[in-house]
Specification:
The protein is 44% helix and 13% strand. It is of the alpha/beta class.
C-alpha cells in the first residue's frame, strides 16, 4: 500500500506545521514521488502516518544541527518500519543500523552513523559507503539481499540482479563482499535529493530479517513510504547547520586543528577505523601526507608500519617495481632482491601520493591488488603473496577529469573513491594560520637550537591577511625566512611585522621586476635591429642610450624640480655646475632618435618584420 493523500482539501491542516507538511507532500506528489486517488479519502492508518510525518518535520526543522536532524530522520524511518500493520510488512524484522551520508560526487561532507536499540555497532555503517556508486548510478531506492547477493529495485517490476553474475551496472567487488558479510540480512538504500533534485547523499537502513531471505524486503509499499519520508524531510535536513565545533584534540601528528577543519577531521577519524581505501584530495601543500599518517595512528593498524610511495619522485617505468618489489635479475639493473612498498607496509598502512601520476600498467596492477588483496613480486616464480595493507591515496587533481581524458582507469577510480575526503586549502582555513605559524616557528627554532622565539601580534595579523596559494608548504617557507631575518638583525627573540613583510617581499612577486622589464625592452630592441638588418640598415647600439634617457625623463616627471630629479638618479653634481640642462636635453634627443629609427624600420613593411622574427627565433 502507498501513502495516499487527498489533493485539494486542507481539512486536516489544522496547524501551521501540519499545513507545511501537507505542502511538502503535495510538492513531492507533483514531482512524481507520491501517487494519489483523485477525490479519495485517507485510507485506514494513513492519518496516523501523516501525524508522525508532521511530527518528524517539526523535529527536523527545530534540530540544532544536521547531525541531530539526521538521527531524528533515522529514528522516524525505523518507527515507520516497526508500526507496519497498514504497510503489510512482516513482523520480526529489526532495523539494526542506519546512516546518513551527505556527499557530492567528489567528496564526503558528513557521515552520521546510528545504532538502534535493537543492537549493532554504529561504526559498521561507515562501510555502506561502498554502495554509493550504485545509488548515484540509478538514483532510486535499492534493496540488497546480503544472503542471496542480489540487488533489487523495488520500483517498477522489481528487477533483481545477481551480484555474482556479470552485469554492466553492478559488480561484486571484494570490498563490497566484505561489507555485505555482516549481521544485516537486507540493506535498504534511499537517495537523498536536494530541492533541485540533485543527488546530495543517501540514507541506508540495515535490517536483521532472516525469515525474509529470498523475499523482496522491505516490501515495495514500505520502501515507497520511506522514500517519501526522506523526500519530505530532505529540504529541512539539508539546510540544518553542522554541529557546533567543540574543537579537536591535537597531538604531535596533528598540531593544529581549527574549527574549519573539525568536520573533515571527524570524517577522517571515523574512516580511519576501517580498512577501506581512503582518498585524500586537495591542493599541493595542504598537508595530505600528515593527515594520512594521522589516520594511520588512529587506526587498528597503528602499531604497524606506515609507508609512503610518492609517485612524483619515481620514474614512471619504475612504478610497478617500487610498488610490488623485485627479485634479482627481474630486469636490467636488478642486481639484488628489493622489497616493494606493499611488502614494507605489511600489517600497516601504505600512502600512495600523486596517484594520478600512476603509469597505465601499474594502474592495472594496483586495481588487482585492491580487489584481490594479493600481488606478485616482479621476477618471483613462487606465486602470489597476500597483501595485509590498508591503502590511503592522495591527489591534487580532479581524478574524474583524468578518467574522462583517458589518463586514469575508470574502474580503478571507483575502487579508490569509496571514502573520498577533500582537504581544504589554507586560504579556506584562515582560522589556523596563526597556530600553524607558531608551530612552524617553534619547530624551526628547535631544529637550530635557537631558543624560544615568538611572533608579535602584528606579525601574525600580517600573515593572516595574506593569500597562500602554496598552502602550508608556502607558509613554512615564509616562517623559516622570517626566523633567519629576525636572527640576523639581532635583538629580542621575536619575529616582527617588518620581518614578515621582508620575507613576503621575497615570494614570487605579482608584478614583473625591473630586470624583467629591462630584459623585455632589450629583446624588443634586438627584434627591431633584426628587422632593420633585413633591409640592410641595422640599429646602432648607441640608440640604446634612449633607455637612460627614459629613466631621466621619468625622474623629472616624478620630481618637484629638475634639480631633485638629477639628485634622485645620482647626477646631483651636474646641478652644482649647471650642466644638468644640457644633460636633460641630450636625454630628450636620444629618445627622439630611437623613436625616429623605429618609425623608419616599421615603414619597411610587415614581410621584413616576419622574416626578422624567424631569424631571431633561429
Amino acid at each position: 500500500m502507498t501513502l495516499v493523500f487527498r489533493v485539494g482539501s486542507c481539512t486536516e491542516c489544522a496547524t501551521t506545521a501540519q499545513s507545511a507538511a501537507f505542502d511538502i507532500l503535495q510538492s513531492s506528489r507533483q514531482a512524481g514521488r507520491l501517487r494519489h486517488a483523485n477525490g479519495s479519502t485517507f485510507p485506514s492508518g494513513v492519518p496516523a502516518m501523516y501525524a508522525r510525518l508532521r511530527q518528524l518535520l517539526e523535529r527536523v526543522a527545530n534540530a540544532s544541527s544536521f547531525e541531530q536532524a539526521s538521527v531524528e530522520l533515522m529514528e522516524a524511518l525505523a518507527g515507520f518500519c516497526r508500526n507496519n500493520d497498514d504497510l503489510e510488512a512482516p513482523r520480526g524484522a529489526e532495523v539494526v543500523h542506519g546512516s546518513v551520508h551527505l556527499r557530492s560526487s567528489r567528496a564526503y561532507r558528513r557521515l552520521i552513523p546510528h545504532a538502534f536499540a535493537t543492537g549493532g555497532k554504529a561504526g559498521d555503517v561507515v562501510r555502506s559507503a561502498e554502495l554509493w556508486s550504485w545509488v548515484s548510478r540509478w538514483r532510486r531506492a535499492l534493496i540488497i539481499d546480503t544472503a542471496l547477493l542480489q540487488v533489487i529495485i523495488p520500483s517498477g517490476d522489481g528487477e533483481r540482479m545477481d551480484l555474482d553474475a556479470s552485469h554492466d551496472d553492478i559488480e561484486l567487488t571484494a570490498s563490497v563482499r566484505r561489507y555485505l558479510d555482516q549481521q544485516a540480512s537486507h540493506i535498504l538504500v534511499l537517495p537523498l535529493l536536494d530541492l533541485s533534485q540533485a543527488l546530495a547523499g543517501m540514507v541506508t537502513l540495515e535490517f536483521d530479517a532472516a525469515d525474509q531471505i529470498g523475499e523482496v524486503f522491505p516490501p515495495p509499499a514500505l520502501v515507497e513510504t520511506l522514500q517519501t519520508v526522506v523526500d519530505a524531510a530532505a529540504p529541512r535536513l539539508l539546510t540544518r547547520p553542522p554541529r557546533a565545533n567543540q574543537g579537536f584534540e591535537t597531538d604531535e601528528l596533528l598540531p593544529v586543528a581549527g574549527p574549519t577543519m573539525t568536520p573533515v577531521l571527524e570524517l577522517l577519524a571515523a574512516f580511519a577505523r576501517h580498512g577501506e581505501t581512503l582518498l585524500l584530495s586537495g591542493q599541493t601543500g595542504t598537508g595530505k601526507s600528515r593527515l594520512a599518517r594521522w589516520c594511520h595512528a588512529q587506526s587498528p593498524r597503528a602499531d604497524g608500519p606506515f609507508e609512503v610511495l610518492d609517485l612524483m619522485t619515481i620514474p614512471e617505468t619504475m612504478h610497478m617495481a617500487r610498488l610490488m618489489g623485485w627479485k634479482r635479475g627481474a630486469f636490467t639493473g636488478a642486481t639484488s632482491n628489493v622489497d616493494g612498498a606493499v611488502s614494507r607496509a605489511h600489517g600497516g598502512t601504505l600512502f600512495i601520493d600523486e596517484i594520478d601520476k600512476l603509469s597505465a600498467d601499474t594502474q592495472a596492477g594496483l586495481l588487482q591488488l585492491l580487489e584481490d588483496r594479493s600481488y606478485r613480486v616482479l621476477g618471483d616464480n613462487g606465486g602470489d603473496r597476500r597483501a595485509d595493507v590498508r591503502f590511503i591515496v592522495g591527489t591534487n587533481v580532479d581524478l574524474m577529469s583524468q578518467v574522462e581524458a583517458g589518463r586514469f582507469r575508470r574502474d580503478l577510480y571507483y575502487r579508490i573513491h569509496v571514502l573520498p575526503v577533500q582537504v581544504p586549502a589554507l586560504d579556506e582555513r584562515s582560522d589556523e594560520i596563526a597556530d600553524w605559524a607558531r608551530f612552524m616557528l617553534a619547530r624551526c627554532s628547535q631544529q637550530l637550537d635557537a631558543g624560544d622565539w615568538k611572533f608579535s601580534e602584528s606579525a601574525l595579523l600580517e600573515l593572516e591577511k595574506q593569500s597562500w596559494p602554496g598552502n602550508l608548504r608556502q607558509l613554512d617557507n615564509v616562517v623559516r625566512r622570517t626566523h633567519i631575518m629576525a636572527r640576523a638583525r639581532g635583538g629580542e627573540a621575536a619575529v616582527t611585522r617588518a620581518d614578515v613583510l621582508r620575507a613576503l617581499a621575497m615570494e614570487n612577486p605579482t608584478a614583473p621586476s625591473i630586470s624583467d622589464h629591462l630584459r623585455r625592452a632589450a629583446h624588443a630592441f634586438v627584434q627591431l635591429a633584426l628587422t632593420g638588418d633585413g633591409h640592410g640598415r641595422p640599429l646602432n647600439l648607441e640608440l640604446a642610450d634612449a633607455f637612460a634617457g627614459h629613466v631621466l625623463d621619468q625622474a623629472v616627471k616624478c620630481s618637484p624640480s629638475k634639480a631633485k630629479a638629477f639628485d634622485l638618479v645620482g647626477l646631483g653634481n651636474l646641478v652644482e655646475h649647471k650642466n644638468h640642462y644640457r644633460r636633460y636635453r641630450k636625454a630628450q634627443e636620444d629618445i627622439a632618435a630611437l623613436e625616429r629609427r623605429e618609425a623608419q624600420v616599421h615603414a619597411m613593411g610587415p614581410l621584413a618584420s616576419e622574416e626578422a622574427k624567424h631569424r631571431g627565433a633561429d
